């Protein structure tokens, strides 16, 4: 049976929930809409979804708190599109740093939201050609880290597992597959997202910052991902490949 993408809307505005739900359903998506974080948690405890639309400005736990919570839990790989009444770039930056995959400011058109949803789902499911999973599971070792290509998480030298979002995993794989090579922002967008992304220019910088945090890398004196001024980034560690057991 053909899979129908299931979208979860979390927004305290009933009119927005109803309008967006109706439009997405008319366009072939399965939709569930809830009003707050409590209802979101209750639904996700018993159900899985393909993407979450998360309003930032809500009473109680706001969208930033909920996004951070989702990224730390068992739904960490589910893509998130954030909605907000704010248009300030800093709010977008904070949203992306908290784990959102895209960001849309209110007021927005339902048609644009649908396009963003489709683009995010496509990017989430699309590995760049050099990352197609045709090999057996591998452990890619560098410094004190191992990247498990089957489980898609990091393991440090003490055996501690560090979870990665889909976007973080794709970016780290691109760096690992192109070590000692300077990659500019356009190349990173091409390799990780097929240049489908409509995110603003700083999105790659924010994603690099998130991956550095996962690696415990100091942005001022990085060990793994170094900044090359006016050019881009370079992954500076040698890579050792072993078969995963």
What topology does this entry show?
Elements: E1 6-10, H1 14-26, E2 30-34, H2 37-46, E3 51-55, H3 63-72, E4 80-84, H4 89-97, E5 102-105, H5 110-125, E6 138-142, E7 145-148, E8 153-156, E9 161-163, H6 166-177, E10 182-183, H7 185-193, H8 203-215, E11 225-228, E12 232-235, E13 240-243
Parallel strand pairs: 1-2, 1-3, 3-4, 4-5
Antiparallel strand pairs: 6-7, 6-13, 7-8, 8-9, 10-12, 11-12
Helix pairs in contact: 6-8
What does this structure look like?
The strands form three sheets. The chain has a five-stranded parallel β-sheet with strand order 2-1-3-4-5, sandwiched between helices. Mean pLDDT is 83; it is low at 127-136 and 195-200. The chain has two domains: 6-125, 3-Layer(aba) Sandwich (Rossmann fold); 130-243, Winged helix-like DNA-binding domain superfamily/Winged helix DNA-binding domain (Arc Repressor Mutant, subunit A). Helices cover 38% and strands 22% of the residues. The chain is α/β, with parallel strands linked by helices and 245 residues long. This is Regulatory protein VirG.
């Amino acid at each position: 049976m053909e899979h129908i993408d299931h979208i979860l809307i979390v927004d305290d505005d009933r009119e927005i929930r109803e309008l967006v739900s109706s439009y997405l359903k008319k366009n072939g998506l399965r939709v569930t809409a809830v009003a707050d974080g409590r209802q979101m948690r209750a639904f996700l405890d018993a159900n899985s979804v393909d993407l979450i639309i998360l309003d930032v400005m809500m009473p109680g736990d706001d969208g930033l708190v909920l996004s951070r919570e989702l990224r730390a839990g068992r739904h960490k790989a589910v893509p998130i599109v954030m909605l907000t009444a704010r248009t300030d770039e800093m709010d977008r930056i904070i949203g992306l740093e908290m784990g959102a995959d895209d960001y849309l400011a209110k007021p927005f058109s339902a048609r644009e939201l649908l396009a963003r949803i489709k683009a995010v789902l496509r990017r989430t499911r699309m590995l760049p050609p050099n990352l197609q999973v045709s090999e057996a599971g591998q452990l890619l070792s560098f410094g004190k880290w191992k990247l498990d290509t089957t489980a898609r998480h990091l393991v440090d030298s003490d055996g501690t597992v560090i979870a990665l979002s889909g976007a973080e995993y794709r970016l780290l794989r691109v760096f690992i597959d192109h070590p000692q090579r300077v990659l500019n922002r356009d190349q990173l967008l091409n390799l990780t997202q097929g240049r489908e992304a409509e995110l603003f220019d700083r999105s790659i910088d924010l994603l690099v910052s998130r991956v550095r945090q996962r690696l415990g890398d100091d942005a001022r004196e990085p060990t793994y991902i170094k900044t090359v001024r006016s050019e881009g980034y370079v992954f500076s560690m040698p890579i050792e490949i072993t078969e995963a057991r």
